[in-house]
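can u do me a favor
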């Protein structure tokens, strides 16, 4: 991950994950959640003084469309995979990616998939990354 948008995507995934494991954090403005994550990580140097408008747009888009995104995710998974049993970080990656693929026209779908696969590789092994790739690829293909 080398550019600001890549790090902002990672930031959104981490914020969604943090909020999924600590619902009390949802009362805190997202800018503060982002600032806290940046402060406690090595992103500060990479983010420089950039604004987090891109991250805020993705986060707000996910939250505004959460019910639809969850339905799409559930329909996209095989019957063997239960979303309730999935890792919360994996769900956070899916939610962000689904928002960008289906609800945003800012970036090429292939770039979005590639970016989220890189994020998945930071945290997971091949099985989870392959699952993400398959689901997102199918979503992208269903939109063309």
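np, heres the sequence
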């Amino acid at each position: 991950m080398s550019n600001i948008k890549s790090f902002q995507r990672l930031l959104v995934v981490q914020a969604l994950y943090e909020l999924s494991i600590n619902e009390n954090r949802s009362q805190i403005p997202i800018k503060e959640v982002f600032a806290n994550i940046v402060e406690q990580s090595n992103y500060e140097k990479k983010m420089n003084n950039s604004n987090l408008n891109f991250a805020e747009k993705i986060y707000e888009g996910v939250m505004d469309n959460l019910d639809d995104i969850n339905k799409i995710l559930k329909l996209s998974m095989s019957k063997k995979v239960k979303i309730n049993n999935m890792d919360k970080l994996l769900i956070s990656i899916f939610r962000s990616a689904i928002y960008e693929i289906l609800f945003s026209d800012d970036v090429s779908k292939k770039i979005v998939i590639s970016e989220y696969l890189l994020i998945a590789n930071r945290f997971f092994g091949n099985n989870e990354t392959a699952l993400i790739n398959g689901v997102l690829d199918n979503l992208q293909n269903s939109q063309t």
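The CA atoms of residues 16 and 99 lie 13 Å apart. hope that helps!!
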